[in-house]
């Protein structure tokens, strides 16, 4: 049997889905996949450099041009071309027409359950466009993959997928996210981003409304004003919704203490996690978080919101906010900065918890689901 893989997301800046796809597929060595597929084909819209994208040798690549947006490419190019036994679709949707059985990874159903957290004027998060596509894809996939129990419950509720057609493959931090003890390297990364060696709070992720970056800035401004902490605030992520971060920082009086950077390559991101004093993720709602796992994997304490997905993702080994609001967030940041016993305990417990999650485990569960679908 032959496996097909939708590889559109592998190109460009690899954020969530692209990282998931690469970290999963690169585990599938011939030995790892023994007893399953005899062949595998990786489809994408651009040429593939195997030095940059280390696919196992037995997985062939087929470029299906021309380059176009993923949903168009998936339906106009991938669907008609894929003559595999099963097609792995790692990004919420599957082609409308394809001869292959399909496995679709659905990470969450937040867009359907909480559309108020997504700006209606933003094309790439429009509920009216994407919810019907995601719902149809989940309902019409042979099997659905997801990553947390919270996400599974949301998919059943939002999309009406029967529980017996959903499989679990928990995510993991990439293997390069490990504790770094090189004091010179950590000092250097602080100086690179701040111009000086100072402690800082870190946020990593796209700046969507439910991630509450303006709220984080307000909470930070409050503790800077009242408690004169030496800390800075670094926000690393693509500003997809056009928030006026410099203007907001000026209005809060924190311009000299705040840095925003866009996409950060993994080599810098590893050091930024390690060099931070705390990782802060004040989401209104989330069914999973890869960034909290990455922070825990390097031994950094996490502040996040007490919702089912984030409680599950962190194992509860985080300072959990009762709600995403300025006052509890400011209190939590101050507490982490001043209570070093708590800081150390969360660092150690989080690091120990996340050790049970590996990409080999994710890859094995994913491959088992694909093989099951191929044989249904």
Short description:
This protein is an alpha/beta fold. It is built from 14 helices and 13 strands.
Secondary-structure blueprint of this entry?
Blueprint: E1 2-6, H1 16-25, E2 39-44, E3 59-63, H2 70-81, E4 86-89, E5 101-105, H3 110-113, H4 127-140, E6 143-146, H5 149-159, E7 166-168, H6 183-194, E8 200-204, H7 213-227, E9 232-236, H8 245-252, E10 258-261, H9 266-275, E11 278-281, H10 290-297, E12 302-305, H11 308-314, E13 319-321, H12 326-338, H13 340-354, H14 359-374
Parallel strand pairs: 1-2, 1-4, 2-3, 4-5, 5-6, 6-7, 8-9, 8-11, 9-10, 11-12, 12-13
Structure, described:
With 376 residues, the protein is an alpha/beta fold. The chain folds into two domains: 2-172 and 358-374, Rossmann fold, CATH 3.40.50.2000; 183-354, Rossmann fold. Helix content is 41%, strand content 15%. The chain contains 14 helices and 13 strands. The strands form two sheets. It has a seven-stranded parallel sheet with strand order 3-2-1-4-5-6-7, sandwiched between helices. The longest helix has 16 residues, at 359-374.
What are the salient characteristics of this protein?
Rossmann fold; 2 domains; 376 residues; alpha/beta; six-stranded parallel beta sheet; seven-stranded parallel beta sheet; globular
Oligomeric state: single chain
Q: Can you count the helices?
A: 14
Question: What is the CATH class name of the largest domain?
Answer: Alpha Beta
Helicity range of the residues?
Answer: 40-55%
CATH architecture of the largest domain: 3-Layer(aba) Sandwich
Give Rg in angstroms: 21 Å
């Amino acid at each position: 049997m032959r496996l097909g893989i939708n590889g559109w997301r592998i190109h460009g800046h690899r954020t969530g889905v692209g990282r998931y796809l690469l970290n999963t597929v690169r585990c599938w060595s011939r030995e790892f996949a023994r007893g399953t597929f005899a062949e595998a084909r990786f489809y994408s819209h651009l040429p593939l450099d195997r030095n940059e994208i280390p696919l196992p040798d037995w997985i062939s690549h087929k470029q299906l041009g021309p380059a176009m947006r993923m949903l168009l490419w998936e339906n106009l190019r991938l669907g008609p071309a894929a003559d595999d036994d099963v097609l792995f679709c790692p990004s919420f949707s599957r082609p409308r027409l394809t001869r292959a059985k399909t496995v679709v990874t659905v990470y969450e159903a937040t867009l359907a359950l909480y559309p108020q957290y997504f700006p209606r004027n933003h094309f790439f998060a429009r509920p009216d466009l994407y919810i019907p596509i995601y719902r149809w894809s989940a309902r019409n996939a042979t099997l659905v993959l997801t990553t947390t129990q919270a996400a599974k419950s949301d998919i059943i509720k939002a999309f009406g997928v029967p529980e017996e057609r959903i499989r679990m493959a928990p995510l993991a931090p990439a293997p390069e996210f490990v504790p770094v003890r090189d004091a010179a390297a950590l000092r250097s990364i602080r100086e690179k981003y701040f111009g000086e060696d100072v402690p800082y709070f870190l946020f990593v992720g796209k700046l969507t409304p439910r991630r509450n970056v303006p709220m984080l800035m307000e909470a930070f401004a409050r503790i800077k004003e009242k408690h004169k902490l030496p800390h800075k605030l670094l926000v690393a992520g693509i500003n997809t919704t056009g928030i006026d971060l410099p203007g907001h920082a000026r209005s809060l009086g924190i311009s000299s203490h705040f840095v925003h950077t866009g996409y950060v390559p993994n080599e810098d991101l590893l050091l930024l996690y390690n060099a931070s004093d705390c990782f802060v993720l004040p989401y209104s709602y989330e069914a999973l978080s890869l960034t909290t796992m990455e922070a825990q994997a390097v031994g950094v304490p996490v502040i996040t919101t007490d919702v089912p997905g984030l409680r599950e993702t962190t194992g509860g080994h985080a300072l959990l906010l009762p709600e995403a609001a300025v006052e509890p967030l400011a209190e939590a940041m101050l507490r982490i900065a001043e209570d070093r016993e708590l800081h150390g305990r969360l660092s150690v417990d989080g690091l120990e918890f996340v050790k049970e999650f590996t990409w080999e485990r994710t890859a094995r569960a994913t491959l088992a689901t694909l093989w099951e679908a191929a044989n249904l």
